């Protein structure tokens, strides 16, 4: 199972949008995909059509319920559509961090939980919270690769150094390199600042930038407001084509 953590400590960069739409496009192409919502804001859960409180178990139960009766993935997984499943989140996940801080092997809770379903899915997409804490570290210790969505603007690469330092720390502790690739999102070809920012991102990361660019497209925002991936809401839109290219 390829496990991809979608992370960036900066909000508004298309992190959850990328997690939801990449997962949906992978599922549409015939893969079995599990989305794990690790953000207490639960935007991935909402973006896949589940209202808060509309489920019995969540990521909190997977990570923070004490021994000897922690939840297992099978208790928490919801079917979204054929080939696409979700471990949902809600605000209770915000209480998991202080609980986990008092436990041994706290960064490995998610990795341990996912072992029981790794043969059931081709991909697991983890939507990380917009900060670097124990929840994000759980995602990083569980993943096989990382995608960093980055919008093009004045502050596009702000905080990038800290993200890469975090990755170096995790790589040292795991003793295995996690490939990190940046994804340019919300790219507006009409503006000069977008092109300048893209050049800066490419200069800092070199080959570690996807050739696929997610262009600004209003259908992506409309789809999120309707609780649907853009491939379902507007399959012929430019936004759907961009995410299909990424999934390909």
What does this structure look like?
The model has no long low-confidence stretch (mean pLDDT about 90). A seven-stranded mixed beta sheet has the order 3-4-2-5-1-6-7, with helices on both faces. The longest helix is centred in the C-terminal third of the chain and has 15 residues, at about 160-175. Helix content is about 40%, strand content about 15%. The protein is globular, with a radius of gyration of 17 Å. The chain is of the alpha/beta class and about 250 residues long. Strand 6 (about 145-150), helix 8 and strand 7 (about 180-185) form a beta-alpha-beta unit. It has helices at about 15-30, 45, 60-65, 75, 95-100, 110-115, 135-140, 160-175, 190-205, 220-225, 230-235, 240-245, and strands at about 1-5, 35, 80, 85, 125, 145-150, 180-185.
Unreliable spans are: none
Order of strands, widest sheet: 3-4-2-5-1-6-7
Number of strands: 7
Largest sheet: 7 strands, mixed
Structural class: alpha/beta
Beta-strand portion reads: 5-15%
Average pLDDT taken over every residue: 90
Series of H and E elements = EHEHHHEEHHEHEHEHHHH
Gyration radius (Cα, Å) is: 17 Å
Query: For the terminal residues, how far apart are their CA atoms?
Result: 17 Å
